[in-house]
Design a protein that fits this description.
By secondary structure, the protein is of the alpha+beta class. It has 2 domains: about 220 residues, no CATH class; about 110 residues, Tetratricopeptide repeat domain (Serine Threonine Protein Phosphatase 5, Tetratricopeptide repeat, Alpha Horseshoe). The protein contains 10 helices and 14 strands. The strands form 4 sheets. It has a 4-stranded mixed β-sheet. It has a 4-stranded antiparallel β-sheet with strand order 2-5-4-3. Strands 6-7-8-9 form a 4-stranded antiparallel β-sheet. A hairpin with a 5-residue loop joins strand 13 and strand 14. Helix 1 crosses helix 2 and helix 6 packs parallel to helix 8. The longest helix has 17 residues.
């Protein structure tokens, strides 16, 4: 998937008005101006506060960039991405120094990074796999069941940035949990640009660079994720979802549910967060709370078969724990029909 940036000869239609700053909600204008640093060693130290500063700029660049084509000392804009669940950081050359822009966005691995000209600015897009979790359970010789989660790909995340000189005009994020996600794309008509957001229900946002300059930094504060349910939510969602998953995996269930609670205050219809909070409750033995979350998740995930499948599987686990094998099998069959997996086959006794 690549950014589609095209120059068209047709004039902009008379009715195409500029999107108000508030409607450029796929946009988070950075309210700060980044952090000005002297060299790559200082960049490394800023990103790795608990580690010793590298002996040289060359070592710092190698450690931060890992030889990727989009990150190097000689580039005007470098994109730093790490491994699983690592943030995207931008480093921009600024009059012999470096300006560091940090984000709260998390990516899977490996990402794809694209650059494209946008008038006097530069459009940067980072795309990576969106990761979710599915429960897998095993029973030992004594009949004791233990459950864990396994990471699975549930879609794509795209992060878009517009940089002009040493200024970040735009930072946007889009998460889709589709089998064949549609990437965001930009079309140019003279000095006007139209952004078509990603996902099943794309929006068309019309802007100019002057428009972006005027919007930043006071009117637009938070990035927007276009989630499965079509709701908009701040970029904090990405951080909270990652924090909740990590806490669940490490059996810190109170911290996990607190992270999902905070996320659901932002977007009450976020089906995956609802399902994953339910799983944290389940793993902690809070069956009533888990069941309530799973039932609600099914309502909000009407178009997402993977969330429906994992949720039915979890409801089957609850039915098993309550001694209701008929209801358990019904849920496992529903999960297997929606998304066959090793876990559903094992529960149904299938080869």
């Amino acid at each position: 998937m690549r950014i589609l940036l095209a120059c068209l000869a047709l004039p902009l239609a008379a009715h195409a008005e500029l999107s108000p700053c508030a409607d450029l909600a796929g946009v988070r204008a950075n309210t700060d101006e980044g952090r000005l640093l002297a060299n790559w060693r200082e960049v490394y130290a800023a990103l790795n506060e608990r580690e010793a500063m590298p002996a040289s700029d060359a070592v710092a660049v190698e450690n931060l960039c890992g030889g990727t084509a989009w990150c190097a000392a000689q580039l005007p804009i470098s994109v730093i991405t790490g491994g699983m669940a690592s943030p995207i950081d931008l480093v921009v050359a600024d009059a012999g120094k470096l300006r560091l822009f940090r984000t709260s966005s998390d990516t899977g691995s490996p990402p794809t990074v694209q650059f494209a000209p946008l008038g006097s600015a530069t459009w940067v897009q980072v795309q990576a796999e969106s990761l979710g979790r599915e429960p897998f359970c095993e029973t030992d010789e004594d009949g004791n069941e233990s459950c864990t989660t396994a990471t699975m790909v549930v879609g794509q995340e795209a992060y878009d940035f517009v940089l002009e000189g040493n200024r970040l005009l735009w930072a946007a994020a889009c998460l889709t949990e589709e089998e064949t996600p549609q990437p965001s794309r930009v079309k140019r008509e003279g000095s006007t640009y139209t952004l078509t957001t990603c996902g099943k229900s794309p929006q068309s946002l019309v802007f100019t660079l002057d428009h972006l300059r005027a919007c930043a930094p006071t009117e637009v504060k938070d990035a927007t994720f276009m989630t499965t349910g079509g709701a908009a939510a701040p970029a904090e969602i990405s951080r909270l979802l990652t924090a909740g998953r990590k806490a669940t995996q490490e059996k810190r269930f109170a911290e996990a549910t607190a992270a999902f609670d905070a996320l659901l205050k932002i977007d009450p219809q976020h089906a995956r967060a609802r399902s994953e909070r339910g799983f944290a409750y389940l793993m902690n033995g809070q069956l009533d709370q888990a069941e309530a979350d799973f039932e609600t998740a099914l309502t909000y995930a009407a178009q997402d078969t993977k969330i429906q499948a994992s949720t039915h599987f979890n409801l089957g686990l609850i039915a098993e724990k309550r001694g209701n094998p008929v209801a358990a099998r019904s849920h496992f069959e529903a999960a297997h029909k929606l998304n066959p997996s090793a876990a559903t086959k094992k529960k149904l006794g299938l080869p």
